Amino acid sequence: CGTAAWMSCDWKSEEIRKERLDEAEKTADILITACPKCQIHFKCTLSHEKRDLEVKDLVELVAERIL
After folding, report:
1. For the segment 13-29, what is each residue's pLDDT rounded down to a tens digit?
2. Which of 16, 31, 34, 43 is most buried, taking the most CB atoms under 10 A from its CB?
């Protein structure tokens, strides 16, 4: 997501997140991450933009599939 341990959530890390979201949107409906911090930062970026993409934690996806 471009943010290292919440230490540098600045314009550059947001640029990186936007690039990752652009990449994900081309091939997926859901962006899966194993890092809770990345999930928070991706969701934050998505809350400021109109995108048709969902962000989920890997464990959340697995739980949905087996329950």
Report:
1. 888 889 999 999 999 99
2. 31
